Each structure stands twice: as C-alpha cells, then as structure tokens.
Model the fold of this input.
Amino acid sequence: MPEPMPDPARGAGPELAGPELAGPELAGPADPDATPAGGTRTSGAPTNGAAVTDADVERIVRAEYARVVATLVRRYGDVDVAEEATAEALLVAVRTWRRDGLPPNPGGWLVTTAGHRALDRIRRDTARHARQKEAAVLTPEEPSDPLGAVDDDRLRLIFMCCHPALAVEARVALTLRLVAGLSMAEIASAFVVPETTMAQRLTRAKRKIKAARIPFGVPFAHDLPARVSSVMAVIYLVFNQGYFATSGDVPLREELCAEAIRLARLLRELLPDEPEVIGLLALMLLTDARRPARFDGETLVPLTEQDRERWLGPQIAEGHALVRECLRRQRPGYYQILAAINAVHTDGPATDWRQVLALYDQLTVVAPSPVVSLNRAVALAEVEGPAAALDVVDALNLVPYHAWHATRADLLRRLDRPVEASQAYEAAIALADNPAEREFLQVRRRLVTGD
Done:
C-alpha cells in the first residue's frame, strides 16, 4: 500500500499522505555520507587530482548552489546578480576541476569565484552606485532579533522567498529555484506550465523583491508568527522534492532531504516553543528513517513490504521523542498529526492501522483536504477492507492526481477486479513523475494482467 504524501491543495505545494502508493513522503538523511550542514563537503566526490566526472560536478552543484546564491544575495542585495554570478562560477568550475581536479573545499571555491564574478558585473553596470545603495537599504538596521535569529544565509533566503508580499506560487517557485537548485525546466514541469511561463513568473517575483525592498533576513520577533507557516510549508516541499523526486532520473535526492531537515532544526532554534515546528522536524526525521528500505534497485518498495531492520533507529528514536514533546504541549496541528501517524508506522514490528485511521480522522478535522481523505482511505482499507475504501476514493475529485489512480488500482486489485485495476495502473503510470514509482506501478500492472 502507499505511504504518506503531499497535498497540492495546501498552497505551498505537496504535503504527505497515505502509504507509499499515495505519493511522495518526506525525508532527510542522517548518515555519514549525507552533505554536512555547512555544505562544504560533497560525499563520494573525487579528491584533488582525480578525474572529475559529470556526476561529481552535479553532486557538488546540488549541494552548494543554495549556499552560494544565499551568500551573494546577502553581500550584494540582488537576486539576479547572485544567480548569474553563481551560474558563471559553475561553468568555470566544470572547466577548471576537470583539468586540475577538485579543490580541497569546492563550496568555498564556488563562493569566492562567484563573488568575483558578481563584483565584475556590478562594476560593469553604470548604475552600480544605485545598486550598492539599494543593497544597503535591503539590510535591516534594527538590532539583533530578541529571539536570537539564526545566522544562516539559506534560512534568510527562505524567509525572503516566503515574504507575504509574494504570491504563494511565486514563493514556492523561488524557493525551488534558489534553495533547492531546481532548473527552470524542472520547476515548470512541477507546476505543469511551459518553461517560458515559469521564467516570466520568477522574473516578476524577483522584480517585486527589489521594488518592495523585501529584506534578506530572518524576521524580527513580532513578524515571525505570521511568516513561519509559509516557511514550514516550503521546507516541507523541499523535503518532498528530495524524498520523492518528481524530475530527473533519480528517485531520491538526499541533499535536498538533508537541507530540509537542517533548516527545520534552525527554525526550531528560532521558535523553540512552536509545536508545529517541532512536528515538522519529527515528521521529516521519521519519514526519512525509512529511506534505506524504500527501494529495491530501481523499484519503489511499499511501506508494508519494507524491511524494518534497515530503518534508521537513531532517527526514529529522535522523531518519537519529538512527537511525545508535541503531545505534552496539547496544541495539535497539521504537522504534529502527520508526525504522530509516522510515529505509529515506525513503532513496533507492524503498523497499528486502527490508530493511524483515528489520527487521520483527527487530521480531517484540523486540515481537511482531498489528499488527506485519500490517505485516510488507505488506512480505512486496512481496517474495514478495500470495498469501504474504494467508495471513499471514488467520491474524491482527484482525477489529475497520479496517487489517486494508484490507490484505486491497488484497491481494485485486492477486490479481484483485474481489468479495472489494470486501467487504473495505466492512468497512474502516465501521470507519475518519479522513475522508481513508475517502475513499481508497471510491475504491479503486469502482475494483474499476467503480461
């Protein structure tokens, strides 16, 4: 069966819902090969003097892109200059590293090179004095945040991207571009719009940042509560994009998962008493803990078929402790309930589906949406049988959503309705973006049809 996945209806993009077939979940690695919080080491990259492959460069770019852009935005107050200088530095890196091997600190090398390129651009600009003046205006002159704002450029970048002056779609797209480092084509695909349309949207959003003088920084104490909801939603989206990649040839992007978890930890430092922030961190830790068992080669493994011995015990223990902390605060919310659901999934040798169903009942009250109802139906199938769940699923208006078709297909298979199940699998395969999920659905369809 599927496992928890994102809900496009929540404004900032996908959230999590039902078991693995219902769609993406969230994650963030905590293993020795994960990109460290500072982002200056790239796991598996060759040492200085060794041959540098395209895969090596891609890993470094994905790990360092957001840090380089964020650093330049802080220095020069111009998103366009930061992006263009970073892109130029990456082109120089490809040529230089292939010739000379990797430097000891690829991230630091990129920041230095991109900084030089940014300065060159500003010096060539006839309006450089105006740019410098504007950069000064963008930097708040108020004293440090009394809550102790975290000194992290990437967190500042997210708060800038999530400013309420920007439309929700613009916030998500900017974050995917600047923080997650997705290409324009990947973001356009996620929004199901032409690449030129998405480029225009991002351009307008960046112009608005400049025109409205949206600051690059973590808000001050009195502004944080109004801003944190949007930031949590975007961090969750970044995590989803890593844990269940909807573009490219790989099903999992560990560096995005690690970055989302790192940012959630920083957000918790900012707001240590906000239970939804604690719930978000717990949710991502518990979901990511299942990562080692999620794939068999190139194929997705459903939650109910995963080898629990391969799950990451320390992350599960931390996630459960955070869920217990949320329960003590008695202020239930969306992320906390999702975290509790994932705590049930990771507690003991098997999932207690009655408890999961009860939690989804609560989630339906706190944050109703069609995807929440879809995920609840997955739990309902385990408690009351596939026929009861199919009645719920068929009543949902989620025809464009691949997870709806995948869930229907699984329920129809269990009801021994192979022709309808095969048709539902075909629809899900046509809409699925993740390569491992497509392979999984194709295998299930062949089992139903006997091909």
